[in-house]
UniProtKB/TrEMBL annotation:
Keywords: Disulfide bond, Membrane, Transmembrane, Transmembrane helix. This is CUB domain-containing protein. Pfam families: CUB (PF00431). It comes from Mytilus edulis. Disulfide bonds join C138-C150, C145-C163. CDD domains: CUB (cd00041), LDLa (cd00112). The chain crosses the membrane at residues 178-200.
Length: 239
């Protein structure tokens, strides 16, 4: 997010349907005042989901100089995003108000402002997933969420909750199901072939071992017969 400070992101111009704004993978910098405005595709709204929230806060849960604010519009003059705290801070141990699964813009545009004070921070900030959607009916190339939102198919298995309601969107399409079916059949055939080869080799080895055993028994028998004949012959010579 710091690289996008004071910029406007246009989903249509970028040919995107979602974006991840991340303050920092480590501790965020001090004295930040970062404002980013997001414009969705025409006739679409934005879903905002916060993850890994870690912004400095007092033990009471009150925000310090560090906080995130979300506005439902193009600028900070717009209303605060419905349902979201005016100042968002804290983490899983310290939080003022429990966060919802997601928040939704009513006017389409979203403005996010993150501020940090002069004190060095040991906190890492947040991840904010912003996704464009419209309400059902959905098109053929869209997925219908449980909450009746329509999102593009390419967001189904991205690893994020773009529906905003924890819908298990990473499901197989018909084409993927067919591919999985064909793959399963090929694997089954390969297993059958391997088992058949193993059984054949085992039978072959068993047959070979039986032949060797029979040959040994035959040799032993012939040796025994020869020995008895020799004894009889020697006894005859003695008499």
């Amino acid at each position: 997010m710091e690289q996008l400070c004071n910029q406007q992101i246009n989903f249509l111009a970028l040919n995107e349907d979602a974006i991840l704004l991340r303050v920092s993978p480590q501790a965020y910098r001090r004295n930040l005042d970062c404002i980013v405005a997001i414009e969705p595709h025409p006739n679409k709204q934005l879903s905002v989901k916060l993850q890994n929230l870690d912004i400095d806060a007092l033990p009471s849960g009150q925000c310090t100089d560090d906080y995130l604010t979300l506005y439902d519009g193009r600028t900070q003059a717009a209303q605060f995003l419905a349902g979201a705290p005016n100042q968002i801070c804290g983490n899983r141990n310290v939080r003022t108000i429990p966060l919802a699964d997601s928040y939704t813009t009513q006017r389409g545009y979203l403005t996010a402002r993150f501020r940090s004070g002069p004190t060095n921070s040991i906190h890492r900030g947040f991840d904010m997933i912003i996704s464009a959607f419209h309400l059902a009916p959905c098109k053929d190339n869209e997925y219908k969420c449980y909450n009746q939102r329509c999102i593009p198919e390419n967001l189904r298995c991205s690893g994020f909750d773009h529906c905003g309601d924890r819908t298990p969107v990473c499901l197989l399409t018909n084409e993927a199901k067919a591919a999985v079916g064909v793959t399963a059949i090929l694997i089954l055939i390969a297993i059958i072939v391997i088992v058949a080869v193993c059984v054949w080799r085992k039978k072959r080895q068993t047959t070979f071992n039986d032949r060797v055993k029979q040959q040994k028994q035959r040799n032993h028998f012939e040796h025994s017969v020869a020995g008895e004949s020799f004894k009889v012959k020697m006894n005859g010579q003695v008499h």
